[in-house]
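Hey, resending since the last one bounced:
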Amino acid sequence: MNEEDYLKSRLQDQLAYFETKSAYNQRWYKRLKVLVILMSVSIPFLSGLIEKFGFPITITVGLLGVGIAIIEGIQQVYSFQENWSNYRKTAEQLKREEYLFKTKSGPYKSNGDVQTLAERIESILENENSSWLEYVNSSGQVVASN
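The structure tokens again:
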């Protein structure tokens, strides 16, 4: 595989994957957090209206509390913040290697061949895969194999 093929079919492909996954997890994390904040600040406000409106407000306050618990549970199960951070970290590592390679800097100064790049990129990806597998095993999640 030549340099151009590796940069396009492996590095750029993986970089796009990690950036897309990072953005997806960031969006979901922020959406759910904003929703929790809005629901949380509504509870004290609505609690002040219980005397005037009674039962419907009591039910609404209860439902908001249940909703907050559900959303936080979803956050815990899907780990949006952690995934966002991990995917972003890996994407930034891949970008750094690409920039170092293209400018023939750092480890590519004296030996700027595609084999060195491939070894370093594959090491980053192997570490990410190992971290993911460790997380899955520690969380007790079942992984479907294809």
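The radius of gyration is 23 Å.

Sorry for the duplicate.
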